[in-house]
Amino acid sequence: MEDTAKKTPAVMIKVRNLRKEYRLEDDTVVALKRINLDIMQGEICCIFGTSGSGKSTLLNQLAGLEKPTFGDVYIRGVPITQLSENELAAFRQKHIGFVFQSYNLLPFMTATENVAMPLMFRGESKRLRTKKAVAILKKVGLANRLRHYPRQMSGGQQQRVGIARAFVAKPDVVFADEPTGNLDSKTTIEVMDMIKAFARKFNQTIVLVTHDPEMAKYADRIVTLVDGKIVNDTKVAKGEKDEQTT
Fold first, then answer.
1. Which CATH number does the domain housing residue 98 bear?
2. Is the pTM of this model over 0.85?
3. pLDDT at residue 3 above 70?
């Protein structure tokens, strides 16, 4: 008899007792205060908060871009806070993608070359990584911009390149830091629809950091930070999301 029971999603990111302090002259600024959080595989989790709430600091901790003062972060069960810089760099290349507000494209590379770069770190041949880069650029509507440099593209087009770069290697987790902060409302919708579609197709975990309440409608879950603490953790019902996005 066929087992029709749904599998319980695995925990992709686990955060335990996370604290981050910064020294500022003779003072200590506590940016994060004992954060405990589980983010599941395939979940789109929105880290929401105003400027200074600690949301970008939390993203940096989750992605291994900064070391915590105390506590641990696990991705796929690996304690990334305990990895060396070389080990962490190798782990990010294999399992993590990024979408930035400022695009972070290399100005001396074409769209295709920018997108293919993560695959180079994985040791794929130039022919194969170019093929994959071209294919995903076509999916994000940039078939006519393959050989263009960032300066030859609009902000929306550059962000599409950024999305293609983040997803081309099909990472387990994509961190999106205010990905639509420099875009108009129409382009914002297009960009977020792309991010969500890729995540659903490949069952990827998305951690979306934003101060924009409109972005929250794309999430399965909204984690709100105030003064470095989680003050609310809400799962968005499917029906509610469908209603918001129609």
1. 3.40.50.300
2. yes
3. no
